[in-house]
């Protein structure tokens, strides 16, 4: 059963009780991410995520690590383009300790100058590691070009210049501005009692300032871009993307099924054509990146330079098929059951249930009943996929990014169409 309470200062608390579970997953979510940063301070949200584990007035960084380890729990965090999450998973009897620990790091981190400089080096190494990992770097480059000129295109990590330039005062000012009660959601799933958790959180979080921290940016404009990035690599890495759907798009279930058929599994068209039939790539897949007001459908693969043109031709052909051919009934039904099965299996994890509560609140303002989601998948037809494909698979919004030893490309701009 899902329950929701809004604390006096505006923080939302949402729980889902699973009485047969022996654990609880709890997360403090802030609905501000890298798209809400200024360009000169790009990476600050992610940097703060790191720094909140470096010590409070009551606990050193070692104390924090030992405390969660001593109860066999998990404590971690992550940053995205539209939110940050700090979360813990513990046995249900240790939930009060987890709440005390999470709220302490969330509210009372000291931002010690020496710790900031040490963690700055860690973040710079994280940036270097991504730049040395081409199958990660290509996705960052893709989003920078696909959303060029818009805050969605900024890297979640930031770059060496922006991270190096973040002062202690700027970091604290950003946190004070953006970590406001109306943008904070606490979600918990597992063997949790809503009223008891709410009472705890009311006590620990009462000092959070009310109001919103972020300012909304205008939706991005889709444009056509071809970017060839030279780098001395054995493979050429390819990201090809087109318009996708925003989180609340009425045809989002059509998009999920289309993506599953295109490159969402080993039985997908791209995997079968690129890897199984042609042997062109080890890794090939597609994904949907959906945001509050926009989205993208992205295909990725890496191939040797001599096979890059053939790989690209297959990508374009398989994407374009959705605009011309109705999906066969058997393939549609298989993808539908795949996604429904994946969802149901994910709900066996309290972590996934906790995340689902938060994302539904951020993007829809309410829990989405499982029955509604299943109905959404069941209503998808071959005709509705064809309709969506012709709406979003627009060559004027196509972005291609290639990374590697490209030289003189064996194709022209006019060849890149779906």
Automatic annotation (TrEMBL):
Protein name: Insulinase family protein
Family assignment from sequence similarity: Belongs to the peptidase M16 family.
Lineage of source species: Bacteria, Pseudomonadati, Thermodesulfobacteriota, Desulfuromonadia, Geobacterales
Origin superkingdom: Bacteria
UniProt domain Peptidase M16 N-terminal: residue ranges: 12-159
GO molecular function term, any single one: metal ion binding
PANTHER family: METALLOPROTEASE, MITOCHONDRIAL-PROCESSING PEPTIDASE SUBUNIT ALPHA
Peptidase M16 C-terminal domain location: 166-339
GO biological processes: proteolysis
PROSITE patterns: INSULINASE
Needed co-factor(s): Zn(2+)
């Amino acid at each position: 059963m899902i329950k929701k309470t809004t604390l006096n200062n505006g923080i939302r608390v949402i729980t889902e009780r699973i009485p047969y579970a022996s654990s609880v997953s709890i997360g403090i979510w802030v609905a501000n991410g890298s798209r809400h940063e200024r360009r000169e301070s790009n990476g600050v949200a992610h940097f703060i995520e790191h720094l909140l584990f470096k010590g409070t007035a009551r606990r050193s960084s070692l104390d924090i690590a030992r405390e969660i380890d001593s109860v066999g729990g998990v404590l971690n965090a992550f940053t995205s383009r539209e939110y940050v999450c700090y979360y813990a998973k513990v046995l249900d009897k240790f939930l009060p300790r987890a709440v005390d620990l999470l709220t302490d790091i969330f509210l009372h981190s000291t931002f010690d100058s020496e710790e900031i400089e040490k963690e700055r080096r860690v973040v710079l190494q994280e940036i270097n590691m991504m730049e040395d990992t081409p199958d990660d770097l290509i996705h960052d480059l893709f989003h920078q070009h696909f959303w060029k000129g818009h805050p969605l295109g900024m890297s979640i990590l930031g770059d060496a210049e922006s991270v190096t330039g973040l002062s202690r005062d700027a970091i604290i000012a950003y946190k004070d501005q953006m970590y406001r009660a109306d943008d904070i959601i606490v979600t918990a799933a597992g063997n949790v009692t809503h009223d008891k958790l709410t009472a705890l959180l009311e006590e620990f979080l009462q000092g959070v300032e009310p109001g919103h921290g972020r300012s909304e940016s205008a939706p991005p404009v889709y444009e056509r871009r071809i970017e060839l990035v030279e780098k001395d690599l054995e493979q050429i890495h390819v990201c090809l993307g087109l318009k996708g759907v925003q989180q609340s798009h009425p045809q989002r279930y059509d998009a999920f099924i289309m993506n599953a058929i295109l490159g969402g599994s080993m039985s997908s068209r791209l995997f079968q054509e690129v890897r199984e039939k042609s042997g062109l790539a080890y890794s090939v897949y597609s994904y949907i990146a959906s945001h509050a007001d926009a989205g993208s459908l992205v295909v990725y693969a890496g191939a040797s330079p001599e096979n890059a043109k053939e790989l690209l031709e297959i990508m374009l052909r398989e994407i374009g098929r959705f605009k011309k051919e109705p999906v066969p009934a058997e393939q549609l039904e298989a993808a539908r059951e795949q996604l429904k099965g994946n969802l149901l299996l994910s709900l066996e994890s309290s972590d996934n249930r906790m995340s689902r509560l938060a994302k539904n609140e951020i993007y829809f303002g309410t829990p989405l009943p499982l029955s509604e989601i299943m109905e959404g998948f069941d209503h998808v037809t071959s005709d509705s996929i064809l309709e969506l494909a012709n709406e979003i698979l627009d060559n004027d919004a196509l972005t291609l990014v290639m990374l590697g030893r490209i030289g003189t490309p064996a194709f022209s701009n006019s060849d890149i169409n779906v």
